[in-house]
Specification:
413 residues; alpha+beta; Aminopeptidase; 12 helices; 5-stranded mixed sheet; single chain; 14-stranded mixed sheet; Nonspecific Lipid-transfer Protein, Chain A
């Protein structure tokens, strides 16, 4: 992509030779250990995924802000979609309050649009900074921190739990994860290399891996246990069926040290919250990831639909990615959608033919497509507005076309 200008600076893809500047800026802005930084930039970072804003100082270019867009493949609406995860948005202290972060985010969207990445993900340091640019929360974790004995109503002895070398067990972990993730929406289709990187990251935190196996010694679940001060943190837990989940909970109940608490992050809809024993334990719905549509037409035409016939108009307002603003004629047939922007004359003609019409902001549409909110909920929030005479029928259509889902993702960058 060509470089863009902002004030007395410009934004472009960085080069491999500029890695030291990118690393230095990261260390200035983020509180990561040097061990993690060295691993991340040796194993994870790629120049072609990194945008930088540079200022010219005499003969030299000085990096003042940067952001990375990590490619992922998500399973959205029964479709494997290319998406991008925006990470490491940082600005040098002396360059703040110049609009660099805002400019970087827009350039990230331009880059993702060029790469045909349908959805842009990010983990915010605070939600309010990103709301204004069209990223709403679409992923939540159910976070439980409790005494191990509180699991006794859910925990049931089952299977054989054994400690394994997580790298040697990578193939088994991947098979269990595939079964587990298939029950959720917008989960990552992890490649072998992504699995390797996940496990390397876990290893740096002294994480221990456990498998639970059935009578035929076939893995049916796993959990990754990271020891923290006075806590056992289960950083990831996946299972093929409830018996395996309950068996792993039984093992944890029996083996977490006396005086330590158990910290588990589970999918938003997990049933464990209904099965805690006696204590009034706080269960937190933890805002995990934000997501927004990069290009409305490209996104809506990429996903798979129920086998129905539907036609409606959708007016989208996007004040940040201006290419999305407009009214779209959406025609769904044979599990596919044909999406085209139409002008005022076309809108008038469609309304004359009694085609239902609704208006929505880009953040609302992102939540609808991602399954984070239903059409009815967005109408109640006054984010989705339908013509009065077609509201009930259009809401019913949208609930079939884009039904609410339970999203799950456990990638932190």
């Amino acid at each position: 992509m060509p470089k863009s200008t902002i004030q007395n600076a410009y934004c472009r893809i960085v080069t491999n030779e500029e890695l030291p500047q990118v690393m230095q800026l990261w260390q200035t802005c983020f509180d990561d250990t040097i061990k993690f930084v060295l691993w991340y930039f040796a194993r994870y970072w790629k120049a072609e995924n990194t945008l930088g804003i540079f200022e010219q100082h005499g003969e030299t270019e000085q990096l003042q802000a940067s952001a990375q867009v990590i490619p992922y493949n998500l399973q959205i609406r029964n479709t494997a979609l290319s998406c991008g995860y925006v990470v490491g948005v940082d600005t040098a202290p002396e360059a703040r309050n110049k609009g660099y972060a805002k400019h970087l985010l827009r350039e990230c969207l331009y880059l993702q649009r060029e790469k045909k990445q349908a959805i842009s993900l990010l983990m915010p340091f605070e939600g309010q900074f990103y709301y204004r640019y069209g990223w709403p929360f679409c992923y939540f974790h159910q976070r439980i921190i409790t005494e191990p004995r509180e699991l006794r109503c859910a925990a049931k002895e089952w299977g054989c739990v054994r400690k394994v070398d997580m790298f040697e067990a990578q193939a088994e972990l991947a098979r269990v994860y595939e079964v587990f993730a298939a029950r959720y929406h917008a989960a990552v289709n992890r490649t072998a290399e992504q699995w390797r990187l996940q496990l390397e990251d876990a290893q740096m935190e002294h994480t221990i891996c456990f498998l639970i196996e059935d009578e035929q010694q076939k893995p049916q679940g796993y959990f990754l246990w990271t020891p923290l001060k006075e806590k056992c943190f289960v950083r990831e837990m996946a299972w093929c069926h409830e018996r395996a989940k309950n068996g792993m909970l039984y093992y944890l109940m029996q083996n977490v040290a006396e005086g330590e608490k158990l910290w588990i992050d589970l999918p938003e809809n997990d049933s464990l919250k209904y099965q805690l024993a006696s204590a009034k334990t706080d269960i937190v719905l933890y805002p995990f990831l934000m997501a927004r549509i990069v290009d409305v037409k490209q996104c809506l035409e990429s996903i798979c639909y129920p086998d129905i016939e539907a036609e409606f108009l959708l007016t989208v307002q996007d004040d940040f990615a201006e290419w999305n603003t407009g009214t779209y004629h959406i025609l769904i047939n044979n599990t596919m959608a044909k999406v085209n922007k139409i002008d005022a004359i076309g809108q008038t003609e469609m309304k004359r033919n009694h085609v239902a019409h609704a208006a929505i902001s880009i953040d609302g549409l992102s939540q609808l497509i991602m399954g984070a909110c239903s059409a009815k909920s967005l109408i109640q929030q006054e984010v989705l507005c339908c013509d009065n005479h077609t509201e009930q029928s259009l809401t019913s259509i949208l609930d079939v076309v884009w039904p609410e889902q339970c999203n799950y993702m456990n990638e932190y960058y």
